[in-house]
Amino acid sequence: MQSRVKWLDHMTFVAESGSGHSVVMDGSPEHGGRNLGVRPMEMLLMGLGGCTAFDVMLMLQKSRQAVTDCEIELKAERADEIPAVFTEINAHFKVYGHDLSEKQVARAVSLSAEKYCSASKMLEKTAKITVTHEILPAVNGEPVQK
Question: For the segment 8-38, what is each residue's pLDDT rounded down to a tens digit?
């Protein structure tokens, strides 16, 4: 895996992934940024969300759960001192679908956090990570395709 981060100007950077995708990162105005993109630490938190969402959806699809939507709300606290690492992170899953099994959803969320999510395993070195979930009625009607 590889990526490249290039400084544009002020405190704005473009990150390019090895798979050919780009995203803009920028600092806050109080640190010389112009609010043109996500903050680098926000990107790290979003990466955690994407990593664990991928695991959970893969497991739920393999267990033939009729998921119609899935959202992960992430909240994080950072240390006051530098380096301002994450100290607490909560990932709250909202899983929407038809006749979803509480047992299957809880298992998928738990396995992702405890075993499969690489980002969680790295971040748990400095942050207390908690995961919660809720099952909600289907919103779009049709299950998500594999």
Answer: 999 999 999 999 999 999 999 999 999 999 9
**For residue 105, what is the enclosing H or E element?**
helix 102-111
> What's 29's DSSP letter?
G
Asked if 137 and 96 touch (Cβ cutoff 8 Å), the reply is yes
User: pTM for the complete prediction?
Assistant: 0.89
Q: How far is CA 109 from CA 11, 30, 62, 86, 136, in A?
A: 36, 37, 14, 21, 15
User: What is the rounded distance in angstroms from the CA atom of residue 117 to the CA atom of residue 81?
Assistant: 27
The answer to whether the CB of 44 falls within 8 A of the CB of 112 is no
- Nearest CA-CA partner of 28 in 44, 45, 10: 10
CATH of domain 40-137: 3.30.300.20
CA distance 91 to 130: 6
pLDDT surpasses 70 at 45: yes
Domain locations in the chain as residue ranges: 1-38, 40-137
Residue 25: strand, helix, or coil: strand
Sheet with 12-17, strands from edge to edge, namely 3-9, 12-17, 22-26
Residue 11 DSSP class: T
